[in-house]
Amino acid sequence: MMKRMIPAAALIVSLLLTGCGGYPNMSGTGGRDGNDIKNEDPKDNGPSEPSEKDKAAGDPDITYDDGKPFIDSDLKVNVTGSKCPDIKDDFHFAVNHDWLKGADIKEGFTSESSFTCAERNTKERAMSLLGDSSLAGHDAELVRSLYEAVTDWDKRNEQGIEPLKPVITDIAGIKTLDGLSDFICDPKRSNCVSAFVSIMNETDLNDSWRYIVYINNDTLLLEDAAEYAELTSAGERAYEAKMALVKAMYSRLGIGGDEAEARFNRVLGFEEKIAEVALTRKDFNGPDIFDKVNNIYTEEEIKNLTKAFPLQAFIEGFGYGGAGRYAVYQPKVIQRLDELYTEANLDVMKDYMTIHYLIYAADKLDRECYDLSVARINAQYGTTGSTDDEVTAYNTILKLIPEPFEKVYLEKYDAAEMKDDITGLCKDVIGGYRDMLKEEDWLSEETRTEAVKKLESMRINAVYPDKWQDYSALDLSGLGYLECCHAINAYNAGIDRSRTGQKVDKDVWTVNILQCNAFYNKQDNSINIILGILDDAFYGEDMSREELLGGIGTVIGHEISHAFDEKGSQFDENGNLKAWWKDEDHKAYGDRMAVLSGYFDGITGFNGTNVIGSNVSAEAAADMAGMKVMLYLAGKEPDFDYDRFFRQYASIWRTITSPEAEYDKLLKDQHPLNYLRTNVTLQQYDEFYEEYGINEGDGMYLAPEERVAVW
Ligand SMILES: [Zn+2]
Fold first, then answer.
1. Confidence of residue 3 (pLDDT cuts 50, 70, 90)
2. 593 by DSSP, 3-state: which?
3. Does residue 522 belong to any structural domain of this protein?
4. How far does residue 625's CA lie from ligand 1's centre (Å)?
5. Which of these three, 364, 397, 420, is where a domain ends?
6. How confident is the model at residue 56 (pLDDT cuts 50, 70, 90)?
7. Secondary structure (DSSP) of 374-399
8. What pLDDT was estimated at residue 226?
9. 349 and 238 in one domain?
């Protein structure tokens, strides 16, 4: 939903990351990479809280402590009452024992970790600004207006579903296919409506300094196209939850349950035909996704892509006509839309737009609609409860107008010193990699040279950007919540339109800097170590060199390694889609990854379920590369305190996670479970064995010939 709202380059990446939604207001260049440091936890920050079952010792039918070679110490049930293991047998558990025992999952979350702690600290500072009426300036005004729009329930309840009606009435009034085309092609009328296609400037995959106009298509109701061929339990939950919401929303509009259900099912039937030719989530996670979506069309070719569907009029109506060059994400979907664009399908297409809009708008209306929307999310993700108004307002502001909010934050909490620290550290790590790469003798000389070239042109995006998108002409004063969303979307669309044919400004970032994460961006060859992660175990201004290297240093090392992995190796030093590995190097890399993957396949998480090596191998290899480069830097330091360093590393991965979320990660996440990120990484390196005198027979021991680090 809301694809049309994404005005900048986050598009490719948002799809790669989540397959839906995205970052509606991000601006600037490049896209966020799928390779963040953080384990995915889709429920966190959503309206959720751990169920009673999570809080209790666990389900008697599930075995929690059968992990091999380490028990899963991310689970509270395995920590409570157990003795602290020896450091030589389970380093992660031993080092973090006291923290794990004392940690509890906070309401609204599925885990407690260094990430949630860092995020909470930033959030507390940021949220204290929301009610601060002394803050002056346009940015503060925007933040305040949106805050009021979200939290003023008297006004929201008074307005009821009125804010919904202009769009719903407009769609209902469409009588012919031409009338539908007029609606789709008018950015004012179809603002915030899923109207089959969306358009925005994106960094050109072939030339990272240039924008190209991208044509995309909507996310479907079941979110993953694969669900239409074979419904999984996730698809079933999405179906039930959205059906219930749509029926209730239709009832507010005076349309009965049977009719609403029939419309919903008809729309799903229509979507099924699109899904037949659409890329699935699995496709989006595949290594060849960039080639799949990089379909370039000339002006003439784009004109001929459709006959019935008004693609050309849409491009012109949205102000992108005459761009000369276009990229179409999924041409097969556009062609299928063209086939489906008939008078006979007029009603179902109107229902499609209406239903998608009802789902999008529900949480932005009165209390009744908001509660229905929360119930939908809870039903879909198996969570309960809802976040309080202040937190909802904070999340909304960060999502819709992050840059004005970040500027207000930085005015209050100066981070200039932090920016210097992190920039310096990134340079050190890049220097370490330069030396390290030269020693990787399994790579050919040419590939190593190319790798160093990539390293030398790597952009360091530390803490916060020096340049910001201009929001001075945006005015939200007096608007309701849904109206604010429409205004922001239209404003962002204007910014995006003005980029057509322009050079990409890589100094404007696409990322929300208050979130706790770090990532490598292939499309501009940048490492992004942003404000939100620089707290708790990761960073502190008073930290020793050992603590810095063991904390944020390993994260920086992790991110840089993504420049040289399966996906990173498809992009050159400028961020252009151009594979630079020789075939023999690619094969050698694949062989090493297979060994690593095989090792993880043999690890049991809990309840007899093993890790899926192929899921986690890329991120595990990045963790190990990050550790290796830190050990390289450590070797240059006089009297380096390795114990302090390794302990700091273990502390960044400490977590207590609900069994459901942990199981979900075990099956789906691209990152290993946290306790494995500590233990398996450290098992690979001699310095670790030497520091603690680890030998055969110790739990942490792995014979040199069995070690699996790729780098
Ligand atoms: Zn990563």
1. very low
2. helix
3. yes
4. 11
5. 364
6. very low
7. HHHHHHHHT--S---HHHHHHHHHHH
8. 96
9. yes
**Total domain count for the chain?**
2
pLDDT digits (tens, 9 = 90+) for 651-681: 999 999 999 899 989 998 999 999 999 999 9
The residue among 334, 364, 394 that closes a domain is 364
pLDDT for the residue numbered 37: 65
- First vs last C-alpha separation in the chain: 40
Q: How far apart are CA 36 and CA 243, in angstroms?
A: 33
Query: Whole domain around residue 276: which residue ranges?
Result: 3-31+162-364
Q: How many CB atoms sit inside 10 A of residue 654's CB?
A: 26
CA of 37 to the centre of ligand 1 (A): 4
Distances (CA, A) of 417 to 63, 81, 421, 541: 48, 43, 6, 8
Residue 270 CA to ligand 1 centre (angstroms)? 37
In the chain, % of residues over pLDDT 70: 92
* Residue 360 and residue 420 in one domain: no
How many angstroms separate the alpha carbon of residue 282 from the centre of ligand 1?
18
Q: How far, in Å, is the centroid of ligand 1 from the Cα of 432?
A: 18
Six-digit token string for 249: 């929303």
Are 631 and 571 part of one and the same domain? Answer: yes
Instruction: Flag whether 474 is in a domain.
Output: no
- Distance, in Å, from the CA atom of 577 to the CA atom of 587, rounded to the nearest integer, reads 19
Model pLDDT, residue 38: 62
Q: What is the mean pLDDT of residues 245-259?
A: 98
CA distance 64 to 81: 14
